[in-house]
Amino acid sequence: MANWLDSVFKVNKPVIAMLHLSALPGDPGFDSAAGVRAVVERAKSELGALQEGGVDGIMISNEFSLPYLTATEPITAITMARVVGELLNEISVPYGVNVLWDGRASIDLAVATGAQYVREIFTGVYASDFGLWNTNIGEVARHRARVGGKDVKLFFNIVPESAKYLADRDLKSITETTVFATLPDAICVSGLTAGAATDVQALTTVKNAAGSVPVFVNTGVRAHNVGEQLTIADGAIVGTYFKQDGVFENRADRTRVEELMGAARDFRATLG
């Protein structure tokens, strides 16, 4: 395990739970009658279910800001900062943030709220459901330094959801050059959408090519396959499985969290 994972999570092969925020002001689905207070109250309830269920960390994201922007409006990160601020006294595990799909805004939010890590699409050019999707990791890395975020760890999603890499390059080559040229703190491997299975061969390819950089399985982890996935990966990020009935739109269900985390602990026990 990489040293920074050890120091942050203090457990082998950590499982990070997604805390999906309801639609926010400016989003098409925002409930203006209920207001931001309803967003905060739901987030508090789900945070309780996740932490009491035994997760190793959380990642707070604006998952219901559909359809997503690749350059968000200021109101999104501003509202998320309020929500995270109201959760801070109740957060008892390492936490990160993710402003979909905006790397700079994610870093700004992390610095403002004391989050230890962010996850985003930091490299590549894609044809996506959101249009042509470009990135500039050199600019983002310099922005992180300017705003005092040098200690914020960057999770690079190397297989973006709902998008296809435009260059004709294989996954092994993409991983090798990403590690060498763009300095990720961790790499995430995803399926097609939230909750979709991550291809085991793709995960293995990235892990073998990533060297000492930790690799996380980013979607499709379930109680029955968490051991298989963690045999390959250095950690997992889980969202949909933790929801009631495993349905993306539902709230986190403590029973399902306990089920998966129990399976993860059983697997870790085999590692010694």
From TrEMBL:
It comes from the Bacteria. Belongs to the BtpA family. This is BtpA/SgcQ family protein. InterPro entries: BtpA, RibuloseP-bd_barrel. NCBIfam families: thylakoid_BtpA (TIGR00259).
